[in-house]
Automatic annotation (TrEMBL):
Protein name: ribose-phosphate diphosphokinase
Pfam family, one: Pribosyltran_N
Species per Swiss-Prot/TrEMBL record: Thermocladium modestius
InterPro entries the UniProt entry points to: Pribosyltran_N, PRTase-like, PRTase_dom, Rib-P_diPkinase
GO terms of molecular function: ATP binding; kinase activity; magnesium ion binding; ribose phosphate diphosphokinase activity
Limits of the Phosphoribosyltransferase domain: 145-250
One Gene Ontology term, aspect cellular component: ribose phosphate diphosphokinase complex
Family (UniProt): Belongs to the ribose-phosphate pyrophosphokinase family.
GO biological process, one term: purine nucleotide biosynthetic process
Xref: SMART domains: Pribosyltran_N (SM01400)
Broad enzyme group: transferase
Keyword annotations from UniProtKB, A to Z: ATP-binding, Kinase, Nucleotide biosynthesis, Nucleotide-binding, Transferase
Enzyme Commission identifier(s): 2.7.6.1
């Protein structure tokens, strides 16, 4: 198996593979060239998709198409953060189901295997007939040390499965944060649905932190009750200084993967890629 990577994912590849020859012309158009004969080989192309999602998607399509055209026996794409994954269904009439269209475009270009890390809704891979969702929960459990009487919480019921998987590794309880609205004042509050967070080390887990609004509200609700609060997510965009706001709300630590490079990238998704390569 051969690994080809671009400059964005050089650190993920480590000593493995060969770097793609890539440049951008003055008019913004992209140029790629494969630096090795791929005929008859199984090849995985590794790339980060953020920042510059649209450019990364187009570059990936060029690489996939070239690999197929030049005779690779099987073509894979390792894209740990999958752009547009949150638009996974038609919420309003007339909307594009963005993630489906992108995966279909990759497949049309010649993709056989798609490897992502903790995609927003893993079922989109199943319905598109391609893709392996690499789970980082074991890496999280290794990074989370010194917890006393831990409780793992998801910010909503949709991510409860993530809380359950991490809790099993930590031998901890798990629950999700439930929103409630006072029918008289209209005030919205959040608390664990079934399990008290009192005097516990709490871990809030999600797949993506964009602006962090939901997590911040959850932290504020737990502050003064929990012994400590940590936040874990695979993909940390941290828009509008979200990390400062999360710390300001009372989080002791933010743990992110390096699918997107941030000061909080403590989890190496390159380890998941190397498992695939082996």
């Amino acid at each position: 198996m051969l690994l080809i990577y671009d400059e964005s994912s050089r650190d993920l590849a480590g000593t493995m593979g060969i770097e793609l020859i890539y440049k951008v012309f003055p008019d913004g158009e992209q140029y790629i060239r494969l630096p090795v004969d791929v005929s008859g080989q199984r090849v995985i192309y590794a790339t980060r998709a953020y920042p510059g999602q649209d450019k990364s998607i187009l570059r990936s399509m060029l690489v996939i198409s070239a690999l197929r055209d030049l005779g690779a026996s099987r073509v894979g794409l390792f894209m740990p953060y999958m752009p547009y994954a949150r638009q996974d269904r038609r919420f309003l009439d007339g909307e594009a189901i963005s993630i489906d269209y992108i995966i279909k475009a990759f497949r049309h270009a010649g993709l056989d295997d798609l490897y992502v890390v903790d995609i927003h809704k893993p079922e989109v891979l199943e319905r598109n007939g391609v893709g392996i969702n690499l789970e980082p929960f074991q890496l999280y459990s290794t990074a989370l040390t010194g917890l006393k009487n831990p409780l793992v919480l998801s910010p909503d019921v949709g991510s409860l499965w993530r809380a359950r998987k991490l809790a099993q590794l930590l031998e901890a309880d798990f629950d999700y944060l439930e929103k409630s609205r006072d029918r008289y004042t209209g005030e919205v509050s959040m608390k664990p649905k079934d399990i008290s967070a009192s005097n516990r080390d709490v871990v809030i887990i999600d797949d993506i932190i964009a602006t962090g609004g939901t997590i911040i509200n959850g932290i504020k609700a737990l502050r003064g009750e929990a012994r400590s609060i940590r936040v874990v997510a695979a993909h940390c965009l941290l828009l509008n200084e979200a990390d400062e706001k999360i710390h300001g709300a009372g989080a002791a630590e933010i743990i992110c993967s390096n699918s997107i490079i941030t000061p909080h990238s403590k989890i190496d998704v390159g380890a998941l890629m190397r498992q695939v390569m082996n």
